[in-house]
Amino acid sequence: MLAPELTHGVLRGKGLLDPRTGLPGRELLIDRLGLALTRVKTHGTLVSLVLVPGDAETAVLLRETMREDHTVARYEPDLVAIVAEHPNGDARPIVERVRTVTTARTGWYTSDGTARVHEVLFRAEASLI
């Protein structure tokens, strides 16, 4: 897990931030998803990973639209990921916010913390198909 005190500049220098948007890249997304899975398992809450096809502009608009405590990242050059912790339910409220920015299809997976990072990524990707 990455040290929380790493600065934005250090993260960019290490290649953890997307150079076009300044948002977390794939590696930082995986780290944050892992931390979220640990937290929700400990606290008895849920985490959803929402995937949205989109370019750099869509990613920036989604960052502006989502809550501050949600991680918005460039998972792939044409795929934006959102990690959101919540007390119950599923990703529908997050998807509703996404719809204010884009009509692109979305995929998501919600976990209680028992799934591993790569399982969450796989299931969210599979739901896009």
From TrEMBL:
InterPro entries in UniProt: Nucleotide_cyclase
Domain of life per record: Bacteria
This protein's name: Uncharacterized protein
